C-alpha cells in the first residue's frame, strides 16, 4: 500500500511520506478531529495476518501510550485498518541519529554524542520504570530535533511497536542485520530479557555515534551473530582518534557479554560517559588528524540517505525464528524492572518545567496528567497546552507575567474538549464552591495521591477557549485537600449528555 497526499487512512489525511523500511512506512498526517499533525506509521502488508500479532501489537501500544516523558515520542493512537496495523505518534521535525551519523561519516563530536546519549537514556529508563522493554534500541529509533537557542532535543521512538517489528522482520533481510548490530547476546540466544538488553543496545549505539560504524561490521548475518556472542567489545578510540580513551571502558562495560557485568541502567551508562568528558580522562590530542569527511549537520538539517547493503536471505531464514523469539519476549525476573506491565500500569510522567515558562509550577504539580512539554501529549491525548492571562487572551508560555495562572490543554474530543487548571501563585488554598450552573452531583474523593472534592454537572463552555465556546458542556470541577495541590482547581469540559457520564469516562481513571 502506497499512500499519496490527500488520501485518507484510519480517518487521518495523508500529507506526505516521511520514510519507509521493512516494517512499514511513516507518513505526516492530519489528525481527523484536532488541529494537529501526527506521524502515522503503517506496518508492512500482511501484519494483520500473522497469528496473534494484532492483539500483541494493540496491547503493547496501549501500554506505550501511558508513558509521558520529554525524551519519548508520545504514542497517540493505534488500530487495525484494511488488514494493516497502524500507530499514530507525535511528529518530531528532525532526523534520526542514524542519519546524522551517516552524514558525519567518521562519527559525531564526542560531546554531542554523549549529550544525545544522555537524553535517550532518560527516555529508555522511563520505559523500564513502567515495567516495559524497548527491545530495538538503535540510532534509527532516536530522533534529534533542533531547539532554537538551546541544545538538541532527543526523542526515543518505536517503543510501542518493537514486538510487531520483530515478527514482521522476516520480510526484509537487510533490516534484520541492522537490528542484530545492536542485539544483546541473551537476545540472540532467545533467553528471557530484562532492561539490561536495552543497556547493551545503547552501548552499541554510543559506539556507533562516536565512530560512524557499528561495533561489529561483518560481511554476513552469521558473522554478526558470532561477534555479538563471542568477540570482545571494540574500542571506539581505535576507530576514531578524537574519542577519549576513557570512553573505551564505558563502551566495554555497557557491552559486557554477561548482563550482570553491565551498567544497572541506561542512566548509569550515560552518567559514566559524561564523567569521562568532564574529567578529561584519556583525552586525545590529534593535531594532524585533519578534517573529518563531512561536517556535522544541525539537528534540523536535511541529510542524505545511503543505500543499505543486502545480506544472505538463506542465512537470515535460518536464524530469524531464534532472533524474533528473543526480541518478542517480555521483561524477565532480574531486578526491580522485572515486573511485566499489565493493563493497570500507571501513567508515568516527567515534566520539563523549563518548557512551561511561568506555568512550570502548575505543570510540575500534575506530572502524570499533563504532557512533559506543552507540545507533547498527556493523559487521553491532552495536548496543545497554553496559558491564558487576566484579559482572557492566549499567552505564550515563555512570557514573563506573574499574573498568568491559568493553563489550558486541549483534549481528544472523545470525550474531553478542554482541561483547565487554575492555581494561586502564592499557594493560598482554593476552597470548593458550587459555581456550576447545573450541579448534578458531588463527592469527596480519596486516592493514593491525596483527597479532595469533585462536582459534576453542565455549564456553558467559555467563549475564549475555542470556536465551540458558548455551547453547553458536561463539566467536572476538581478540588484538592493536600497542601501540595490545594492551591489549584481543575475543570474538565466534555461534549456529553451529563456530567456524571464525563465522571465515569474520564475521572475514574484519571492520573490525578
TrEMBL record:
Protein name per UniProt: non-specific serine/threonine protein kinase
UniProt cross-references to Pfam families, sorted A to Z: Pkinase
SUPFAM superfamilies (alphabetical): Protein kinase-like (PK-like)
UniProt cross-references to Gene3D superfamilies, sorted A to Z: Phosphorylase Kinase, domain 1, Transferase(Phosphotransferase) domain 1
Keywords: ATP-binding, Kinase, Membrane, Nucleotide-binding, Serine/threonine-protein kinase, Transferase, Transmembrane, Transmembrane helix
Keyword Isomerase: no
Highest classification ranks of the organism: Bacteria, Bacillati, Actinomycetota, Actinomycetes, Mycobacteriales
Protein kinase domain: residues covered: 12-277
Keyword set includes Cell cycle: no
EC annotation from Swiss-Prot or TrEMBL: 2.7.11.1
Recorded superkingdom: Bacteria
Organism (species): Nocardia acididurans
Listed transmembrane segments: 309-331
Stretches the record annotates as Disordered: 280-303
GO molecular function: protein serine/threonine kinase activity
Xref: InterPro entries: Kinase-like_dom_sf (IPR011009), Prot_kinase_dom (IPR000719), Ser/Thr_kinase_AS (IPR008271)
